[in-house]
Amino acid sequence: MRAIPFLLLASVLLLQFPSTEMKTLREGRGLKGARHKLARQRVRVRGTGRHSRSRPLLIVSHQCSESTESGKVFVDCQGRGLTYIPASKTWSRTPKHLLLAQNQIKVLRDGDFFGYESLKILDLQQNQIALVEEGAFQGLTRLSRLLLQHNHLRTLSEEALIPMSNLRYLSLYDNPWNCHCGMESLIRTLQVPSNRNLGNHARCAEPVRLKNRKLNRVDPELLCKESDLTGDPNGNLTDLTDPVEPSSIRSKPNAVTVCHTYHIPEIRMDCSNRGLTEVPSSIPEDVFQIDLSHNSIRHLKPRDFHSARSLRILKLKNNNMGHIDTGAFFGLLHLNELDLSDNSLHSVQYGVLADLYFLSQLNLEGNPWVCDYSIHYMAYWLRLHPGVRHSGLLCHSPPEHTGESVEEYVHSYNRDCPSDRQLDRTDQDQTDAELWDTLMEVQGELEELEPSHLRAPQKYQIIRLS
User: Fold this and answer.
1) Measured between alpha carbons, how far is 294 from 271 in angstroms, rounded to an integer?
2) What is the per-residue pLDDT across 39-90, written as a single tens digit (0 to 9) for each?
3) 91 with 68: CB under 8 angstroms?
4) How far is residue 145's CA from residue 166's CA, in Å, rounded to a whole number?
5) Cα of 215 vs its chain's centroid, Å
6) CA neighbours within 13 Å on the CB side: how many for 199?
7) CA torsion sign, 131 to 134 to 139 to 144?
8) Is the entire prediction scored with pTM above 0.90?
C-alpha cells in the first residue's frame, strides 16, 4: 500500500519533467527563432538598402505627383532633389509630360528614358547636367519639346538628338558652351532652316574670340580648321577668324533667356530677382503667368505686355514702381490677377486699367496712395467693376486721411461741398468752356478712330453760339 503513493508521486514527477524539458526546449527554440527572425530582418533591411540603391523608384513615387489635364498625364518631379531619372515603371499611368526641373541631375546616361516612348515634353532645366551620352534620349520618338537650359553643358553631340525625330523645340541657352571642333555637327544641325526653333538663344562661352556668339551664327567650317592650324584645340587665336559681332549699345533683356520657364501644365515664367530695370521683350504669346517681382522696374511703358495675349496672372510686387503709362497693359484682355503691391504708386492715371476687362483680383497693398483728386479714377473704375476683388487701397497721405480707405475718401469728397469749393460765375463759365473743348477733342478722336462706314448718320448738328 505504501508503494502505491510512491508510484503515484514518481508518475507525477515524470509527467512534470517532460513538460519542464519541453518548456526549456521551446524557450530554446524561441530564442533561436528570435535570433533567426532578427537575422532575417537584418538581411531584409540590407536587401532593401541594395534594392533602394539599384531601384530608387519606390521613394520617387511618393515625392512626385501625377495629374491629368485635358487627357494628358503630367508627372511633376520639380525641385525634389533628384540625382537620377526615375524609371518609367514608377508611374501608374504613362506620362506625356515629365517635369524634372530644379533638381541635381548631373549626367544623362544611355537608356535613362527607356519606357518613356510616349513623352511629348521633357523639362530638365535648372539641373547640373554636364554630360549627355549619345544614347540618353533613345526611344523618345514622339518628343516635341526638350528643355535643357540653365545647366552646365559645354558640349553636345548631334547623335544625341537623332532619336528625337519629332523634336520641334529645343532650349539650350544659359549653358557654358565651348565652341570647338567637337561642336561642329551640333552647330550644323542648328543652322538647318527647318530647325529654326532649336537652340535659338544658346551662345558660346569660350573660346574668347567667339564669346557671346550665338551657336547658330558660328561658321562650322572654321571650327576644326583653326584647331588644326593653330594647334590649339580651343582655337583661341583671333588672326584666322572673322571679328566678333559687335553688340548693341543697349537693348531690352530677352524674357526667354532671362526668365525660367515651367510647364505645370500651363506655361509659367519666373522672372523674379533678376535685377531687371524694365519689362523684358519677347514674352511668348502662350504664357499663362509671369512673375516680375523683386526687381527694379520703376516705370511701366506702353505695350510692355502686348505680346502676352494669353496672360492670366501678372505679378509686379516690390519693384519700387512709381509710374504706369496709359497703354502699359494693352492687349491683356484675359488677365485675371494683377499684383502691384509693395511699390511706390501714388495714383493710377486715367485709362491705365481700360483693357483689363476680365480682371477679378487686384492687389494694391504697400503703396503710398495719395488721396487727392488724382486717386478718383481708381475709385471710380473699381466701382464700375464690382466683380474685382481688391485689397490695400488705403490713403497714405495727406495726414488727415491717413489710414482711410480711398472709397470712403471719395465718398466724403463728393458729399461735402464747402464754400471755398464754390465757383463764381466767371470761373464757372471758364470751366464750362474748358469742358466743352475737352468733349469736342474726345469726339474728334473717336471719329478719327472709327471707320467712316461704321459711323451712325448724324441727325442733329450742334452749333455753339458765343
Assistant:
1) 9
2) 444 333 333 333 333 333 334 445 899 988 878 889 999 999 999 999 999 8
3) no
4) 9
5) 25
6) 28
7) positive
8) no
